[in-house]
């Protein structure tokens, strides 16, 4: 008897858990209506039919009749609250005609900056945003006034799958010209679902305020008398032409004698260093600095004998060729002298 009771209890627990998981909304449905707590809403059967229809709530025809009434093909839901949130579907016989989800608008006044952050690698038409909250099952972002106003013409970018350790990631586009003076702010509207409760927020910012370049490229470095001349180029993701979209580079190096770390905005740094690295930013708008490049060994800049030809920069490769040519000329002269 105890074994049978234990089996029934486990079965009910599994069934309840499965039902809860099924009830969770992990995507944005095609049709949904948002209401405030205590509001009354009218749900429309989105199908052309002349006969009578039957309404189901979460695939059940009964249970909440005191809060619902029919008006033709429409269903009126009164005093919206948590238990009334979910899927409402209209049927004709055994045929499901359409469904609409009833969601509740959250009244929480969360700080928009704590919900998502955005970054652009350049002034091109692409930028990315990261949703930092982890309690929402589905999130979508849209750019422009149409999304701010909630118009059907808004192009939404929805989250897919489970968020990674850094949250949901979004790749968005804009239509601002990178060459003109920026006078229009970007508008990014976010919608997030958590257990049939919809959060909706809009964030405004200038593109220049979110530009953070990728790490630059250290092309080469060579000795010039008592200095080391470091050649740095913008990352491949930066806007072109570089003569118009300039970057400011900072070099951080470690002195070989005393291990002291020093930063410099000049491409000429002391010769006697053990290692160095670089980062970049847009100097016109004082954008945040990029991430540092990996530390680079400051000794034996080209190392012709220790590296494969494919690993050398064009400048180093040319220097190595000149060294080899000098050695060959020297060996040839020595051989002629011996003869």
From TrEMBL:
<dbReference type="InterPro" id="IPR019482">
    <property type="entry name" value="IL-12_beta_cen-dom"/>
</dbReference>
<keyword id="KW-0202">Cytokine</keyword>
<feature type="domain" description="Interleukin-12 beta central">
    <location>
        <begin position="114"/>
        <end position="193"/>
    </location>
</feature>
<dbReference type="InterPro" id="IPR013783">
    <property type="entry name" value="Ig-like_fold"/>
</dbReference>
<feature type="signal peptide">
    <location>
        <begin position="1"/>
        <end position="19"/>
    </location>
</feature>
<keyword id="KW-0393">Immunoglobulin domain</keyword>
<keyword id="KW-0732">Signal</keyword>
<dbReference type="InterPro" id="IPR036179">
    <property type="entry name" value="Ig-like_dom_sf"/>
</dbReference>
<dbReference type="Pfam" id="PF10420">
    <property type="entry name" value="IL12p40_C"/>
</dbReference>
<keyword id="KW-0325">Glycoprotein</keyword>
<dbReference type="GO" id="GO:0004896">
    <property type="term" value="F:cytokine receptor activity"/>
</dbReference>
<keyword id="KW-0964">Secreted</keyword>
<comment type="similarity">
    <text>Belongs to the IL-12B family.</text>
</comment>
<dbReference type="InterPro" id="IPR015528">
    <property type="entry name" value="IL-12_beta"/>
</dbReference>
<dbReference type="InterPro" id="IPR050676">
    <property type="entry name" value="IL-12"/>
</dbReference>
<dbReference type="InterPro" id="IPR036116">
    <property type="entry name" value="FN3_sf"/>
</dbReference>
<protein>
    <recommendedName>
        <fullName>Interleukin-12 subunit beta</fullName>
    </recommendedName>
</protein>
<dbReference type="GO" id="GO:0005615">
    <property type="term" value="C:extracellular space"/>
</dbReference>
<dbReference type="GO" id="GO:0005125">
    <property type="term" value="F:cytokine activity"/>
</dbReference>
<comment type="subunit">
    <text>Heterodimer with IL12A; disulfide-linked. The heterodimer is known as interleukin IL-12.</text>
</comment>
<keyword id="KW-1015">Disulfide bond</keyword>
